[in-house]
Structure formats: C-alpha cells, structure tokens
Amino acid sequence: MNAKSSAAAPTGPPRPSSGLVALDRLVAASEQKHQARRLAETDELARINRALHSLERTGGLSAAELLDQLTQTLGSAPGAAASNLLTSEQEAALREAGSFVADMPAFMARASTVTALQGISIVASSLSTGEVAQMLTLSEGRIRQRATDRTLLTVRVSSSLRFPTFQFPDRRELAGWERVAPSFPVHAHPVAVATFMGRPNVDLVLDEQPVSPADWLAGGGDPEPVIDLVTTAFKVRA
C-alpha cells in the first residue's frame, strides 16, 4: 500500500454489515410500534442487536459469519435424558464402567458448548490474509502460498481464509512455526491445536519448569521435540 492510499484509509470504527443495518431498522420500527405493548420482546431484540454489533466490532467478521461458525461447531447436541437416548444394554454397560450420566449437563457446561465458544473466540480474533501479509512484511500471494503449504494454519469462514492468532504471539510468527505447523493433521480442530500449543508439557523444560510448546518455540527451543509431541498427540489410529 502506498502512502497516498494509506492516508486515505478510514480511521473510524468498521461499518456494520448490511444484515445488521437491516436489523437496526427492524429494532427501531419495533420500538416505535410497541412502546407500551410487547415491551419485553422489543427489549430482548434490542439486546440481541447490541450483542451482534459488539461481535462485529471486536471480531472482524460479520455477525452472520460468526453465527454460522457457532452453528457448525456446536452441532445438534442432544438435550434429552440419557435414558431416552440409550438402549437398556448400553445403559447397563455404562453403569458397570462407572461412566453413566443420567442427565445431560447444563447447556453451558457441556464440552461441546465450551469447545464451540472457544472456536468462536479463535475465529473472532483471527486475521485476514492482508493483515498477516502486512504484519509479516510479505506479499499476500506469499501468505496464500504458505496457507496452501500449511506452514501457516488457517480456518475457513465462508469463502475466506482466516489465520488464528496463536501462531503470532506479540504479532510475530513463532520461531520454527514453518516447520511445526505442517505436522498437525489437516483436519485437526483449531481449538485442539490452540490448546496443545498453550498447555505446559513435561517434555519441554526451560529454567527447570515445564513450558508450553508456544513458549518453548518463543524461547528459541528446537522445533523437533514439538513436532514429535504433535505426532504423538494427534496420531490417528487406523
């Protein structure tokens, strides 16, 4: 980007997506039409609208894209009691193993919900191809090639590639990441990768303390032990 185009770039907050603009109009019309009647519904719609605006401002993606990600990640977790989902033989086997749970956990306590929320956070904070190119002082073509080679990991949002920020602590690429990133399986979930990179590992020690793979690489550690740990942790059994 040259100096002229840079100077002309907008400095204010990003504009809301067209979908949210339409929702703004709907909220305003609802507030005018139902000032005394159905106030609770109008207040709830306005609260949802404010939350979606906040998501767009902080996430760099449209609210529709973020909601699509939540829907895809969360799936359709069953909400019925376990006794309605299992055969009597399956229930007996789980009881014998000490693994039977009579009722599904509360929605926000389910592992699937926690994973979905973590996935949404990763997507919301992820970077575009242009942002990564500018940060690493490389061309966008080179960044796309690295995404193809999987020396930078990506998540797909609609038709766009996004780059999770766990690869770029302090807005710099992790040392050795170009060697480590391709060792993750193609279908590894971004939450699993982020968790692995951020969790201390007893096999990686700096100053007599276990450190995470990310801290190990950031501290100048050899990438090979991290690659070995990735291979073991993400091994796919036939």
Structure description:
The structure is a single chain. By secondary structure, the protein is mainly α. The protein has a domain at 126-233. It is built from twelve helices and four strands. The strands form two sheets. A two-stranded antiparallel sheet has the order 1-2. Helix 4 packs antiparallel against helix 6 and helix 7 (129-136) crosses helix 8. The radius of gyration is 23 Å and the shape is globular. The termini are far apart. Mean pLDDT is 77; it is low at 1-9 and 76-80.
Give a short summary of the structure.
The chain is mainly alpha-helical and about 240 residues long.
Estimate what percentage of residues fall within beta strands. 5-15%
Please tell me the overall pLDDT. 77
Oligomer: single chain
Helix percent reads: 40-55%
Tell me the overall shape: globular
Please give the largest β-sheet.
2 strands, antiparallel
The main sheet orders its strands as: 1-2
Low-confidence stretches: 1-9, 76-80
List how many beta strands DSSP finds: 4
Structural class by secondary-structure content = mainly alpha
Number of helices: 12
**How big is the Rg?**
23 Å
CA-CA gap between termini: 49 Å
Topology as H/E string? Answer: HHHHHHHHEEHHEEHH
